[in-house]
Amino acid sequence: MKILNFNFKALCLCSALFFTLNANAQTTTTDTSKPRKQLFELSFGSTMLFISNSDIQKIQDAAKLTIPTNTMLFFAEFRPQMKTRIPVFLNIPTESKQFIVTVTDSNGNSKQSLVNEKASITLGTGFQYRPFQVTLYGDTKLEFEAGPLVSAGFDSNKKIFIAPLIAGRLMVKKGSDFVMYFGGSYAFGVNSIGILYGTGTIF
C-alpha cells in the first residue's frame, strides 16, 4: 500500500512537471507545424533487489534465503534519438538487507535466524536501445528497451564498489507523455537481481 501511494504521488508530480514545461514550450514556440521532439523521461518507482553478496563469510555460507530489499527508484533518461537512450538512476534503500540463516549452537541444535546488513545507495548510468515499438490500440504503444549499465555504491566496509549490469524495461506509453514500465536487471560481480517498476512522463 505504501508503494502504491508513493507511485500515485510520483505520478501527480510528474504530470504537474510535464504540464508546466509544456506550457512554457508553447509560449516560446512560434512554428507549430513541426512536432515537438521529446528528449527526456522523468519517472519515479520502486525496485526489489535480491542481493546475495555479503562481506560476512559466515552469512554467505549459512544463508538459506535472501529476502528482497525494497528501494525507491529515481529515474531520468535522455533520448537523443528515437531508439537510443542514456539513463541515469538512483536507488535509495528503504530497509536493510535481510538473510534467513540456519545457525548451529554449541549443543548441535540448529535453528533459523534473521540477519540484517546495511543496504547501500546506488547510482548508475549507461546505454539503452529500443529494438521495437508496437501499437496496441489508439495512441497506446508497447515498447521494450535494454542495454548495458554500470552502478556504483558503498559496501558494508564503506568502500566504493562498481558493478556492471544488464537491464531492460517493458513500457506502455499512453499518448505522447505518460509511460508505465516493468523490468529487471542483473548486476555482475555482486550477483544482484532486481525487479523494477514505476510511472513517468516524457517531455
Helices and strands in order, then pairings?
Blueprint: H1 2-28, E1 40-51, H2 57-62, E2 63-67, E3 69-78, E4 84-93, E5 97-104, E6 110-117, E7 122-126, E8 128-137, E9 140-154, E10 160-174, E11 178-187, E12 192-202
Antiparallel strand pairs: 1-3, 1-12, 2-5, 3-4, 4-7, 4-8, 5-6, 7-9, 8-9, 9-10, 10-11, 11-12
Could you please describe the fold and organization of this structure?
- This protein is α+β, with helices and mostly antiparallel strands.
- The chain has a single domain, classed as Beta Barrel (Porin), CATH 2.40.160.20.
- 16% of the residues lie in helices and 59% in strands.
- It has helices at 2-28, 57-62, and strands at 40-51, 63-67, 69-78, 84-93, 97-104, 110-117, 122-126, 128-137, 140-154, 160-174, 178-187, 192-202.
- The strands form two sheets. Strands 1, 3, 4, 7, 8, 9, 10, 11 and 12 form a nine-stranded antiparallel beta sheet that branches.
- The longest helix is centred in the first third of the chain and has 27 residues, at 2-28.
- It is elongated and about 70 Å long.
List its salient traits.
about 200 residues; alpha+beta; elongated; 12 strands; Porin; 9-stranded antiparallel β-sheet; single chain; 2 helices
Overall pLDDT level = 79
Shape by Cα distribution: elongated
* CATH hierarchy, class: Mainly Beta
Describe the main β-sheet briefly: 9 strands, antiparallel
Total strand segments = 12
- Low-confidence sequence ranges: 1-33
Portion in beta strands? over 45%
